[in-house]
Amino acid sequence: MHSFELRFEQEDTIEPYLQEVARTELRESEENIRNGLEQLKQLIRQEENFYIPLDDEIYLMAFLRSCKFYPDSAFGRMRSLFKFKTKYPQYCANLLPSEERNVFVSNMFTVIPYRDQHGRRVLIAETGDKWNTKEVSLTEIYKCLQMILEAAMVEPRTQIAGCIMVVDMKGLNGNHIWQFSPGFAKLVLDWQQVCSNR
């Protein structure tokens, strides 16, 4: 029996060069962090039927950093993400590695243990030769990708530097192409909207 564990960085030690990126590109400062967290928490409290753990500040910082510490924009992105998850429960609900063993057994996704020269997290997706469509569905692939990205999202360094994904399509064939339904294409378009929403 195999066991699988996603391990990401939890320490909040950020190298000086990334601190400078955060300051110059993301408007990060002690004042913006303090005010941003306070205002974002207030917006969350005011939203009916919106349950976010207010004490998980690293999670809240993911939205603030992605929106350059503008609380209204961060809250808008947060709402868009949760509306998306509500709209597509079959892809977004109950995301647990133990429930998506097929993808992990297939070794289609690799998170490189070292960051690139810009401090970015690197993910390799091998969606050709390693994808046996009889064993791993497109839904399972998307769920796995969501889990990896959500885990990386709470890494302070990734919040600042970002991440990149390399997609290796060697061996992609008609069996793979037929997995992409119009409904899945709509999901991807909606997901892009969430990612680009500011």
UniProtKB/TrEMBL annotation:
Give every CRAL-TRIO domain span. 109-193
Q: Which GO terms describe its cellular component?
A: membrane
Any one GO molecular function term:
phosphatidylinositol bisphosphate binding
**A family per Pfam:** CRAL_TRIO
PANTHER family noted in UniProt? ALPHA-TOCOPHEROL TRANSFER PROTEIN-RELATED, LD41874P
Q: What name does UniProt use for this protein?
A: Retinaldehyde-binding protein 1-like isoform X1
Q: Specify the species.
A: Diaphorina citri (Asian citrus psyllid)
Upper lineage is: Eukaryota, Metazoa, Ecdysozoa, Arthropoda, Hexapoda
